[in-house]
Amino acid sequence: MTDIVVHGLPRWSLAVPPLAFAVLLLSWGRDLGALLLILVCAGLGSAVIAAVHHAEVVAHRVGEPFGTLILALAVTVIEVALIVTLMASGGDKAASLARDTVFAAVMITCNGVLGLSLVVGSLRHHVQEFRVRASNSALAVMTALVTLSLVLPTFTTSAPGPQFSAAQLAFAGVVSLVMYGVFVFVQTVRHRDYFLPVSSGTPDVQRHRDVEQLVVAVDEDHEEHAVAPSSKVALISLSLLFVCLVAVVGLAKTVSPKLESAVDSAGAPLAVVGVVIALLVLLPETVAAVRAALRNRLQTSVNLALGSALASIGLTIPAIAVASIWLTGPLVLGLGGKEMVLFALTVVTATLTLATGRATLLQGAVHLMVFSAFLFLAVSP
């Protein structure tokens, strides 16, 4: 059954964003009963699917790596606004919210999203290729950002506890913004070709695949390069993408009280709420990355995974540094020993995974197991 198309877009993709936003308005500030909770969850899932669709339309129009960058930036900007809002209204209980959310985003993207993409793509295509220079560049920036922003506060002595002093926080914010800005410039201008998906017709791919696999890859690549949508359609999708992402983040915040109650009832740490909200917020990027891997475009998946981690750190820390001017209460940024071990394991594993430019099921399984360890230790520290 084919979708009814209006203005070059399926009708469902035009209807879902305003409906999801209407659900957000209906549920905002209310105590969710069973029926309203089901409605919010349905709206959240629908908004995620619509967001991925519109992100792909925009990406097809502007080309890579701009498409993945737009999705990562859009999600992160709204996520940062949510973090600042929750910190402003949460008091001392929200002191570690920024740290927990950013670290959860790093672990979700670098292990969950990347690992799932590798597993799904490898099951279908056996071996997938990506560009080593792009992946290693993103990983280097991500490692430096996390170390300077989330590891150092544990060891500094100017402020008590795992916190930065005002001057140190300002310095970390500027450094984070500069590094992320330089990375975006390199990704989109100076070395854009590093971040483009590997062509299925390159000699490396032909050398490592048999004829049948190569024919499948060429067919998928041809499908991916269908006629690009018009500027009007792309602008409509960009607007609806923003509406979808607002709905996703808003609905995730709406269900957070229920999550907090469930976490309290289970006796789990409060940080679990941040992990669950991060999982919900990152759903659009996760679905987009997995779909790209299924199309044998693993470079797009890697761009989304690492790009989302970079955007989360590179934009959150500067925003928190500015917001600290009027925020009251402590701001805990330093990671604990358990989190540092998980981060070090993630960096080592990702370095080995991204070193060869080719990935199989094994690398994906390793990343998913590290992600599983993160989830398990979040619930049972």
UniProtKB/TrEMBL annotation:
Record membrane topology: Multi-pass membrane protein
Coiled-coil intervals, chain numbering: none
Swiss-Prot/TrEMBL keywords: Membrane, Transmembrane, Transmembrane helix
Transmembrane segments: 12-28, 34-54, 66-90, 102-123, 135-155, 167-186, 233-252, 272-294, 306-328, 340-357
Keyword Metal-binding: no
Endpoints of the signal sequence: none
Protein name, UniProt field: Ionic transporter y4hA
Domain Sodium/calcium exchanger membrane region: 34-188, 237-378
Pfam families: Na_Ca_ex
Cellular localisation: Membrane
The keyword Flavoprotein appears for this protein: no
Lineage start: Bacteria, Bacillati, Actinomycetota, Actinomycetes, Propionibacteriales
Molecular function per GO: potassium:proton antiporter activity; sodium:proton antiporter activity
GO CC aspect terms: plasma membrane
InterPro entries on file: Alkaline_pH_Ca-Antiporter, NaCa_Exmemb
